[in-house]
C-alpha cells in the first residue's frame, strides 16, 4: 500500500479542521454532521484543542479533466470497481494511496503539540487565510517545519472572503519563507487556493473547480512516499508522537511505524531516556538509555476519523498501539534489543504553575460530584497519562502544584474537570522561574498585535511598563479595494513585541478594553530568557462581600459605578467572596445584599426601575486573568467564583500585617 503522511498546520482559525473535514467528505470517509473537532469543548469553543489523526484513500485521475469526486464513496457502489453486491467487508479494502492526515491545533498554547506531530510526518499543508495573511502561529509552525527540512505545500484558504487578497497573501508567505531562511527547494513551494468550507481547491485562481482534487493531486505529487519495500523488510522500529487513553486498554501510543511491521502479540523492546524532566542538569549530554520490554496487545489504524482494528501495521503507516502502558512520547519501540534508538522528541517545559486545592469555600461541595483531595489527585494522575505538556507535583498534602504551557492549557484542564463533575479551587497562575548556570530565567513571549492606529500608543505604553520591547512595527503596505469597501484592516498597524510571560499574564482583558475590542493579540512562548526584573503592574482592587446572602439588584446598582461587577442580582454570595473589581484599585468591602429600605445613601432616583449594567461574568479564563495573588478561583460544575484566601476582614488584615513584618 502506498502511504503519504501529512499534517495540516496554520494560525488559529485559518481553516485547518474545515479543510480536513472536507477532504474526508470528498474521499467518502466523512460522516454526515461529524467534524474532526469532536471533543465537547472543541465543539463549544470552535477551536481545535487536541491534534487528531484521520486517513483518506485517493487515486489520482490521470489525463482527465473531470474531477475524481466520490471515487471512494462507500455508498456509491455503482462506481466501485468491485461493482454491486460486494460484501461490505470486502468493499472496505481501500483503493488508491492512503493519506494519513494529522489535524493540529492553531492556538499558541498548544504549539508544542504541533511540534511533536511535525517530527512524524513527511509534509505539511501550511494553511493561510487569504484575508489575514500570515499570522504569528503561521510563522512559528512554518519555522519549525523548515528547520526539520520539510517542504511545505502552501494552501491559501478562504479565498471567498470579501476582503480576501490571495495574491498579496502569496507574496507575504513567500517573504516569510525567505525571512525564515528557507532553502531554495523549500521556497519553491506548490500553492493551492482553496475554499475549505465549500470543499473547492484550485491550482490557479482562474481555474474552474468543483472539488478538492487539485489539492489531493498536489499531495500525491509532492509528498514523498512513506512506504518502500526496503523499509518494510527491516525489523520493526516505531516511535510514538502522541498519547491516547482508553478506560479498558489504558494508555495508548499514536506512533509512526518507520521500519518493519508492528503485529498484535509481538514482544518488543522500548528505549527511552526516562522522563525528559527527570534528567538532572548535571547529567545533560549523557544519554541514558534504559531498555524495557513490552507486548503489543492491540493495533488500530485510521479510516476517516474511525479507528479500525488491525492485525498488522506496515512501515510508513501511523498506528494506535495498546499494550505498552508506560510508553512515553519519543521513545523507540523495536523488535530487536540492539536496535538503534530514533532521535528523541523533545517536550516543551511548562511555563506557568498554580496550586489546586479542595474547594473549602462556604458554598463548596454543593454542585460537585467529586470534591475530595483524593479525587482531585486521581483525576490529575489520569490526566498525566495523556496530557503531555502537564506536570503535577503531588508532594504537599495541602495542595497540588500543577504546571502547564499557558493559561489556556490550564483553563481547558479545569473546564474538563468541572464537566466531569469535579470541584476545585486554584491559586493565581505564576510563571515558572528557573536557574540555569547560575542565571535566573523566566519564560518570554513574542506578541503580535493588530490594532487600529489610534490605539497603538496606549498598547505600546502599557506593554512597555510590563517590560515588553518593540521588535517591529508594520504599517499596512497598501489597502486593497475590498478593504476600503468593507472598512476592515484599514488604518491598522501590526506591532511585534517581546517580553516576559509574567508581563502579559492578566493583560488580555486590559487589551480588549484599550483597543475597544478591535485589537487582535496573539502570543507564543519564545523560550526561557534572563529574568526581566521587577514589573510594576497596576493592582486591580477587589470588591469584597462582607456578608452572606443573595445579591440584590438595588445594592448592585449602587456599586456598579465604583467598578466592574462579576455577579448579577440573585447570585448567592458569602463573606470574603470577590464580586467585582474597583475602578480606583483599592480593596473595598461591600454589602451586595443590602435592600432599599435599609439604605440612606442615594435616596434620589430610587423609585424608577433600576438600570443595571450586565455583569462581567467570570469564566475560568477570565477568572485566572483577573484574580489577585491573595485570591482563589473556585470552580464547580455550575459556578466560577472568586474569593479571598482569608474570608473575614480581620483575618485579611492580620495576614497583611504578618507579611509586612516579614519583609
Ligand atoms: N469564508 C470562509 N470561512 C471558512 C473557510 N474555511 C473555514 N472557514 C471558517 O473559519 C472558521 C475557523 O475554521 P476551522 O476549520 O475551525 O479553523 P482551524 O484552523 O481548524 O482552527 P483551530 O483548529 O482552532 O486553530 C470557521 O468559522 C469556519 O467556518 C472558507 O473557506 N471560507
Ligand atoms: Mg481546527
What does the radius of gyration come to?
A: 28 Å
What proportion of the residues is helical, as a percent range?
10-25%
Q: What structural class should be given to the helix and strand makeup?
A: alpha+beta
Strand percentage lies at 25-35%
Number of strands: 35
Largest pleated sheet? 11 strands, mixed
Which residue ranges are poorly predicted, with pLDDT under 50 across at least 5 consecutive positions?
63-91, 275-286
The appropriate CATH architecture of the largest domain is 3-Layer(aba) Sandwich
Distance between the termini: 70 Å
Annotation field: number of helices? 18
Question: Which molecules are bound in this entry?
Answer: guanosine-5'-triphosphate, magnesium ion
Q: What is the CATH superfamily classification of the largest domain?
A: P-loop containing nucleotide triphosphate hydrolases
Using the coordinates above, name the CATH class of the largest domain.
Alpha Beta
Outline type: globular
Mean pLDDT: 86
Total number of domains? 4
CATH topology (level 3) name of the largest domain:
Rossmann fold
In short:
This protein is an alpha+beta fold and 663 residues long.
